[in-house]
């Protein structure tokens, strides 16, 4: 790819073109014996002309490049170099390189493919969903939104108006005048409500009435969709938008083209919103009503996109005016480092070419780049004596510790390794960038990976082989970069602990009016291994047999931690616990990440619920029908805490589980069986409690189910199907290692067990925690207090349609144990608008609530702490003044620690960081892929065949899901093995397939067909 930025003399151009065709970067699928083409010791030596060498002597006229290429082709046909068509596998895989691919903005093939993931917070259909409908970060665009999409195979972005979701496809009308569709939808820039319903109406009316993806594909191929004439006014509107953006760009070209120089710090990464960047780069005269218009923001956005290694969007949003539209601004030092490596690679290839033309000019002393190549190559070859490499994104597993020689890397070496990490681990270079070409050339120079693509996955393997990352590392850990944190090789995220941590603490704010509840039996229902016990429940009876007070007690660290303190800012960096197996990361963790240690462990112990520990109690008065009659919040102190196991409580209370078909569990590796650590608290069985406590527990469960039924009637999601549960245990490191040994030892591979999580554990917990969140939201809303309210964006105006779709189509099949498809989930999400956080309350359709916030886990979630701080300030004011706080009459900005504007700004960053945390937490899928590779290739325990259900059909293959924890897979035309023609396959059809490849780094699985089973009904009859 770097040929595009260099000008060589004719003699070198012919040589380079010769080598380029032999190289295996981007579109080449197979090359025979690359090692004889490039490498430190095998660069082709043409000093002695062979029988096919047509290089003229110095006196003859040089042959044209066309003649040279024809000659090369005639003598190298046996190498079987195949260039992929542009659409090959891109519906499923990531394009390795868009820089040298042919481009056509009007290509129907290009438009139909999965859009690239936008930023580090986006969630796509391949991700496990689980309870994600309840989580912030499930984006949902609305018809009429203007969006920019960057297709994986294209360098040019496409602007279009979103038309909606139907038939398993997202539909758009592009500025080029085409009706287009995509499988996934990740937009880098959006303008909400760009097109009016009147402008959309004729376009929507012209779309054929199709039900399935196949019907839509055929209709579009036959040009039966909306024409340019029908959408002419909308096309003009989009073109005007882009012309206005271009006008802004031309007017501020000097500042926009120097954005990196103006915005970047010398050494530190910065995080700026699109608003902040526009304020710096654009003149204030462009503002309209105090804000930059969308086209001006788009001019800034496109300018930032032109900088290859300066800016990276963290969290593009559904509207460019949202404050969480954040960019990562890389320091000048990073830009300089990347370009130094690129220069070294160019110099290396140039020198090799010159030495080939004239061996007398070959250098005697190796350059720093060549020294790195030699050093790294020797290290890798030594590593392969104990662990071989695989093309699957992991090294061959080992049941014993393996040794790797310690190497003193020079500054140049570390810079090259950092370049490869930026490419393979952090994915900082776009497929359209020139920098992946330099990475591929480094791998080619190593001469270690013959006959395979020299892409990001291979660079990942190289980093594993030199010990930069673990042989079984989780790629998704590196897909998200939390601000001001460092990813640790051993696991966890490192942060700098603020100095003088004790200064962030305060005396109990509510000591003077804290209620004594020592006589109440408080049930803390958590797994025995839990160390953060931050919620419990109790029951209080009233004078009426049919009315009860349900008290939900939450840990109360907010009463003893000063808001906006250094400790508060420290927790804000990682706003919630990350539950990635083998890499648990607590919000309250030490310098090196992981679980709480030292001062943080003591803080957790101080506030975990126990006897004589303070709590913040959310109370609701309810009747047997589940109606909420009253509610209140009070600081309390507990005195009779009973710890219970949720599995025992679920059985005791008779919780029902929806029947589902589950695959059998499987495991790989040798488990280091250790006796379980005894819990640090007594955990009795529910049956061993006294009669009064048992009755309280059963009553709480009954009332919780009644409350849940009321939420179901308002549209709440009835049941979340179990997702794969991964258990990872690491073997112990031998204690007899010699500290003077010049080798570094890598432990044996971890034991991995995969099974489906069992049904919901102890419904009384989930139902009462939701109740507490509703109470907190209502109590704060009554007083006008800004807190992080959870809500969806569109259900208020689409409630009736959403309720009808959910209750008529989705929920009945859930009750039968049939999990809704991604298309059905997306359809509902379009109606409800996706989940957001806001400083003002709003409805939450999926929860069946008018308003909601999270308030019961302040030791695990920063958002809960924000809510507690606001509540404590309000309680203190009400106690001091003996009156109810009223936002319409009192100055809340003076009373509360966070004003509405401050809360809005805090929520913007919280929104982004929560989405990032969720994405890392979903990386358990990587563990499943690692386990499947090991079971398939090494332990030979994987199933011999799977059932493959087609979800998308393309000209070159099929995308679908396996009956193995729902993993997505791809089957190309060759993989169908003449069992069926692609044109005869419909979405929903099933095939019996076998594995052909798994790539943990890219997350891809490819399969081959063993038998065509037909539609699901025919398959079940068989």
TrEMBL record:
Transmembrane segments: none annotated. GO terms for cellular component: P-body. It comes from the Eukaryota. SMART domains: RNB. Residues 43-60 have a biased composition (Basic and acidic residues). One of its GO terms (biological process) is mRNA catabolic process. It holds the Pfam family RNB. GO terms for molecular function: 3'-5'-RNA exonuclease activity; RNA binding. Residues 514-877 form the RNB domain. Residues 39-61 are annotated as: Disordered. This is RNB domain-containing protein. It comes from Bionectria ochroleuca. The lineage of its organism: Eukaryota, Fungi, Dikarya, Ascomycota, Pezizomycotina.
């Amino acid at each position: 790819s770097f040929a595009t930025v260099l000008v060589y003399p004719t003699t070198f151009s012919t040589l380079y073109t010769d080598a380029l065709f032999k190289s295996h970067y981007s579109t080449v699928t197979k090359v025979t014996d690359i090692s004889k083409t490039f490498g430190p010791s095998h660069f082709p030596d043409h000093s002695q002309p062979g029988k096919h060498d047509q290089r003229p002597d110095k006196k003859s006229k040089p042959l044209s490049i066309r003649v040279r290429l024809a000659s090369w082709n005639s003598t190298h046909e046996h190498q079987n170099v195949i260039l992929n068509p542009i659409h090959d596998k891109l519906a499923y895989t990531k394009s390795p390189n868009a820089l040298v691919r042919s481009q056509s903005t009007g290509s129907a093939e290009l438009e139909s493919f999965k859009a690239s993931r936008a930023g580090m917070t986006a969630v796509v259909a391949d991700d496990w969903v689980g309870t994600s409908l309840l989580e912030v970060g499930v984006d949902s665009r609305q018809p009429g939104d203007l969006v920019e999409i960057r297709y994986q195979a294209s360098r040019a972005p496409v602007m279009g108006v979103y038309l909606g979701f139907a038939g398993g496809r997202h539909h758009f009308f592009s500025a080029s005048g085409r009706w287009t569709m995509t499988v996934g939808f990740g937009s880098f820039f959006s303008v909400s409500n760009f097109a009016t319903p009147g402008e959309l109406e004729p376009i929507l009316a012209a779309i054929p009435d199709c039900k399935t993806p196949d019907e839509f594909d055929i209709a579009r191929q036959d040009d039966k969709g909306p024409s340019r004439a029908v959408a002419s006014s909308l096309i003009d509107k989009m073109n005007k938008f882009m012309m206005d953006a271009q006008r802004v760009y031309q007017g501020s070209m000097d500042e926009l083209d120097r954005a990196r120089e103006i915005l970047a710090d010398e050494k530190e990464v910065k995080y700026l919103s699109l608003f902040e960047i526009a304020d710096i780069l654009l003149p204030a005269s462009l503002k309209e009503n105090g804000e930059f218009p969308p086209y001006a923001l788009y001019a800034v956005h496109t300018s930032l996109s032109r900088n290859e290694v300066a800016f990276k969007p963290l969290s593009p949003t559904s509207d460019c005016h949202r404050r969480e539209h954040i960019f990562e601004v890389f320091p000048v030092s990073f830009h300089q480092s990347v370009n130094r490596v690129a220069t070294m690679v160019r110099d290396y290839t140039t020198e090799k070419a010159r030495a080939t033309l004239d061996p007398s000019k070959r250098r005697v002393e190796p350059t720093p780049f060549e020294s790195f190549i030699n050093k790294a190559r020797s290290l890798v070859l030594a590593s392969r004596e104990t662990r071989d490499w695989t093309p699957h994104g992991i090294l061959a597993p080992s049941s014993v510790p393996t040794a790797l020689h310690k190497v003193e890397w020079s500054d140049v070496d570390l810079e090259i390794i950092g370049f490869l990490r930026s490419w393979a681990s952090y994915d900082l270079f776009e497929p359209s960038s020139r920098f992946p070409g330099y990475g591929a050339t480094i791998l080619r120079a190593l001469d270690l990976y013959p006959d395979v693509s020299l892409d990001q996955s291979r660079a990942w393997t190289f980093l594993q082989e030199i010990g930069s990352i673990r042989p079984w590392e989780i790629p998704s850990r590196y897909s998200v970069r939390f601000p001001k944190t460092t990813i640790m090789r051993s696991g966890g995220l490192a942060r700098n602990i603020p100095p003088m941590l004790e200064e962030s603490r305060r005396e109990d704010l509510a000591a003077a009016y804290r209620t004594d509840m020592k006589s109440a039996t408080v049930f803390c229902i958590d797994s025995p291994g839990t160390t953060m016990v931050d919620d419990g429940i109790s029951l209080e009876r009233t004078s009426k047999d049919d009315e009860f007070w349900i008290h939900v007690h939450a840990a109360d660290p907010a009463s003893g931690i000063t808001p906006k303190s250094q400790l508060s800012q420290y927790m804000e960096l990682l706003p919630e616990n990350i539950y990635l197996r083998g890499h648990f990361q607590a919000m309250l963790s030490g310098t090196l990440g992981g679980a709480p240690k030292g001062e943080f462990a003591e803080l957790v112990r101080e506030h975990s619920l126990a006897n004589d520990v303070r709590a913040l109690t959310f109370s609701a008065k309810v009747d047997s029908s589940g109606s909420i009659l009253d509610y209140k919040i009070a600081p309390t102190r507990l005195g009779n805490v009973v710890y219970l196991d949720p599995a025992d409580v679920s059985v005791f209370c008779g919780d029902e589980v929806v029947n589902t078909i589950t695959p059998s569990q499987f495991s790989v590796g040798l488990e280091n069986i250790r006796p379980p650590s005894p819990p640090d608290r007594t955990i009795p069985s529910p049956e061993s409690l006294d009669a009064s406590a048992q009755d309280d527990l059963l009553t709480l469960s009954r009332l919780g189910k009644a409350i849940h039924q009321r939420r179901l009637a308002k549209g709440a999601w009835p049941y979340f199907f179990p997702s794969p549960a991964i258990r990872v245990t690491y073997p112990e490191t031998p204690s007899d290692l010699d500290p003077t040994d010049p080798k570094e030892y890598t432990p044996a591979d971890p034991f991995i067990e995969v099974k489906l999580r069992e049904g919901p554990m102890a419904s009384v917990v989930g139902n009462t925690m939701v109740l507490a969140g509703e109470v907190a939201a209502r109590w704060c809303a009554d007083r006008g207090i800004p807190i992080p309210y959870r809500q969806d964006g569109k259900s208020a105006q689409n409630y009736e349609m959403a309720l009808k779709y959910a209750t008529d189509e989705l929920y009945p099949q859930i009750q039968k144990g049939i999990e809704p498809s991604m298309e059905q989930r997306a359809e509902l999400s379009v109606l409800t608008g996706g989940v957001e956080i806001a400083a003002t309350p709003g409805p939450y359709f999926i929860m069946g609530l008018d308003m909601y916030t999270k308030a019961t886990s302040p030791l695990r979630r920063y958002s809960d702490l924000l809510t507690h701080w606001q509540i404590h300030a309000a309680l203190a004011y009400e106690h001091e003044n003996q009156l109810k706080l009223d936002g319409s009459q009192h100055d809340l900005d003076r009373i509360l620690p966070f004003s509405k504007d401050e809360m809005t700004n805090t929520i913007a960053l919280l929104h982004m960081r929560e989405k990032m945390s969720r994405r890392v937490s979903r990386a358990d899928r990587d563990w499943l892929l690692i386990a499947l590779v090991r079971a398939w290739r090494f332990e030979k325990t994987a199933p011999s065949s799977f059932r493959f259900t087609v979800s998308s059909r393309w000209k070159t293959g099929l995308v679908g899901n396996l009956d193995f924890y729902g993993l997505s897979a791809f089957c190309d035309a060759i993989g169908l093995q003449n069992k069926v023609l692609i044109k005869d396959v419909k979405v929903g059809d099933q095939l019996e397939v076998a594995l052909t490849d798994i790539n943990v780094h890219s997350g891809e699985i490819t399969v081959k067909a063993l038998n065509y089973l037909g539609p699901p009904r025919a398959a079940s009859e068989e």
